[in-house]
Amino acid sequence: MTSQPHQPLYAARTPIFPRRVNGFFRRFKWWIMAVTLGIYYLTPWLRWDRGASLPDQAVLIDLANRRFYFLWIEIWPHEFYFVAGLLIMAGLGLFLFTSALGRVWCGYTCPQTVWTDLFLLVERWIEGDRNARLRLHKANWSLHKWRLRLSKWAVWLMISVATGGAWVFYFTDAPTLLRDLLRFDAHPAAYITIAILTATTFIFGGFLREQVCIYMCPWPRIQAAMMDPDTITVAYRDWRGEPRGKHNVKNRRAAEAQKAVAEAQAAGAGVARYAGTPYPNLPATPAKPVAENAQGDCIDCMACVNVCPMGIDIRNGQQMECITCALCIDACDDVMARIGKPRGLIDYLALSDEPAERAGAAPKPLWKHVLRPRTILYTALWTLVGVGLLYALFIRSDIELTVSPVRNPTFVVLSDGTVRNIYDVRLRNKAGEARTFRLSLTSEDMLQIGLEGRDTLSVTVPADTTVLQRVYVSARAGDPAASDDTTPLRLWVEDVTAQIRASKATTFNGRGAK
Amino acid sequence: MSKRKTDEVTGVETTGHSWDGIEELNNPLPRWWLWTLYLCIFWGILYTIAYPAWPMISGATQGVLGWSTRANVAAEITAHEAANAELVTQLVAADMPTLPQDADLNRYAIARGGAVFRANCSQCHGSGAAGAKGYPNLLDDDWLWGGDIDAIMTTVRHGIRNTLDDDARYSAMPAFGDMLEPAEIDAVVEHVVSLSSSDFDAALAEQGAVVFADNCASCHGEAGLGNREMGAPNLADAIWLYGGDRATLHTTVEQARFGVMPPWGPRLKEADIRAVSAYVHSLGGGE
Q: Record-annotated residues binding heme c 2 (chain B) (predicted)?
């Protein structure tokens, strides 16, 4: 059935040489690149005054001391649900944007896209645009080629080192670490992290590029579940572009010539003698009438293919490889402007508009595509989690306690028959100075409270630390709580100076406890 | 080799393999993926040379790096001990009754003592130190031989009623089954019950009080409040080591009890003895 040569089981990567392009989306992408890279590289250097005993770095993941600082917020390990909540919001946000606008994450903000874009910028700057790079790629390894390649790799490497370097600054005081790094006496973990991230940045941004998106990243597969025909995505209006072909230009010129002839004939016999001269190589009249020879707007100039960083042809329809970077839109709009056609042959559009557009009707308004049950649901869930996190953030207290009842054994009987329960209470002081906490309990029954190793009910907790205090609650022999199964109680901790209170409910086991 | 052909729908060549008419398309995998596989195999071979891997008849190959989990643990323990050397020195030199005043050292001692307790003491006294029948509960306020830190340390160091340590705490309750009539034992049991309960036979207890004064009071005291000098339990409180019901008390009087604890001085380091004593002292009954 076929006579073509057998396909190999493994294919070498086909190098891609994206051409430079100008236009609205390219400019937009430059801005996004500047902002995202700016945030990444500069954030560790922002300072935030938290007082003498706490670090002054605005964003700091202090793994050694188990703290996460974000501006005025300080998160302790037991409050990790804030981070989990933010990750859930990021996930839902990704769902929302994908269902509304397709793979905008991939096309604009994914680190792989942003760094590849940056590496391509360097590549273009050193080796030239698409044609020059193609020639260089095919050229033998001359001194010239070595010089260009080595300087490109050197700049890439510098960017990679800066990328890996910026990462470690998030985990410790940035100015101190930079000084230590330059003196070669920083912790080996810092150097190893920088080395690994330098290698991944260099290889992923410089050489693997689209291979990461196509073969490594799971997101292109997952996103299919988020997109539907109403999703606004980058697509080719084949009903407008097809049938494509270069002869389109020829026909256009023929039509112009025909028109010129008609005008000349209308003007008079004397002028008609010169009718053919503007197009000496073309027949003076088209082979067929212009109306019958109607062609699509696509002139098959390959501009959309040449600018594509993924090396695909958007005119083949929706493809898994497409990251919707929208550069083909810019490239095509540029060509349409030059041949005098309206923009948008390749454009952001919803595939559900195809029948209407094919019939010549106007597409649905944008908001009707974006406002769908699923986008509304994603927005609602996203908002719910966000409001929940904000609420949790604002009701956070500077003091906290956790109560772990010691249930081995469930209760202890003292020599006078008193029944005693033991609770391990962790008192957290999140304030910047030492605080004295007073413990107390409330219960409907007669219960007494006492602290191990202390005569009073006060505990002084140093700044930004947790103190573990063994607390005894007892019921005298005759009291109901001593013989009952369980009795509810509430342990209170009060900051004597700041007048803040916090409490935790727990239970007391009597002799009746199983 | 099967004849290759092209799938009509996709225009992609098939591998030629067919299962019930379902054919496999040949979309070529990137070549770097193949190289990654080879690299992993190569890495795997290097790994088995560097680390213990290949099973032999009497063990596995040791690996050229000489890596061993046991050696790593030993090194970690050594490093940990070196890091705590200062605290250990302080603990060994510390005046134990005033230890709680040094918050950091006290916290270290209790944490270390907890580990020592779970490894060496929990087999008898329980992981929560609540004891069991015959093994004292260390959480309550009743102590046979004393509950201040020095008394606890002495008990830990020398043990109780053992033959291994000459300084072990020692006392022996006679088995009264040879000396008293069963009726007398019943009476003295009733008297002992009366010391801590309101539910008893007054007439029988009165007879028992005489037996008690003649036979038991020398160790347990006239009021039955016990004597820490000889580890004689307080019989008037709510705590019973072997049980406070009449049948158990009868057995105790008839056959006597002889609880033994080994000496820990020869087995534990000085710092461990101090630490575990501080831990026990901090459990709720420390005096």
A: 173, 216, 219-220
